[in-house]
Amino acid sequence: MRLYKVIHRAPIRVAKISTKRQQLRFKRAMVALKIALAQEKQETKEMLTIYRRYSQGEVSKEDLQKANAQFIDILKGLGLGVFAVLPFAPLTIPLVVKLGQWVGVDVLPSSFNINKPLKEIDQLIDEEQQQNPSHEKAAKQSVKPSVKK
Q1: Label partner for 127 (CA 20 to 30 A): which of 19, 87, 147, 149?
Q2: Is 44 a residue whose pLDDT tops 90?
Q3: Phi, psi (5° rounding) for residue 116?
Q4: Which contiguous run of DSSP H or E holds residue 140?
């Protein structure tokens, strides 16, 4: 009943707030994905350098275990890639991840399991917007319809 009163009193304001909330949620998800992919990229580079040093005989057991753990993460990502090709991928991938959590198997690579606080993600979004302010303005201008007289 309360929601009806709010929507009835200010439908435009409620719609604007909900779209802003959805945009912010989407931006947060994309920044978190960007962070996870950057971390995965860095770890993969380290893994390759460790394997190169291993072929020369200059690596410790700890480094080799770290590289092997990253290789397992890459295999996990490839395993999820199989489900991305299947039909209804937006349904099957979360289902597989949830099923893996239920059974006790970690399906996602380790870099995707990081839960950063929302404040850190919001700070990263603000930094990106400060670095690229012209991109935001251009996107807003392209959305506005032109009025002919």
Answers
A1: 19
A2: yes
A3: -80, 150
A4: helix 133-143
Residue 57: strand, helix, or coil: coil
Tokens of 23: 């945009």
| Cβ-contact 43, 73 below 8 angstroms | yes
Residue 41: HSE in the Cβ half-sphere, 13 Å Cα cutoff: 6
Position 25, amino acid: R
Cα–Cα distance list, 43 to 31, 54, 117, 136, 143 (Å): 18, 16, 22, 32, 39
> Rounded to an integer, what distance in angstroms lies between the CA atom of residue 70 and that of residue 45?
10
pLDDT per residue as tens digits for the range 91-128: 888 888 889 889 988 888 888 876 667 777 777 778 87
What does the block give as tokens for 136? Answer: 């935001």
- Residue among 118, 121, 100, 117 nearest 109 (CA): 100
Quick one: tokens of 118?
Answer: 């929302």
| Three-state secondary-structure class, residue 43 | helix
Q: Whole-model pTM?
A: 0.67
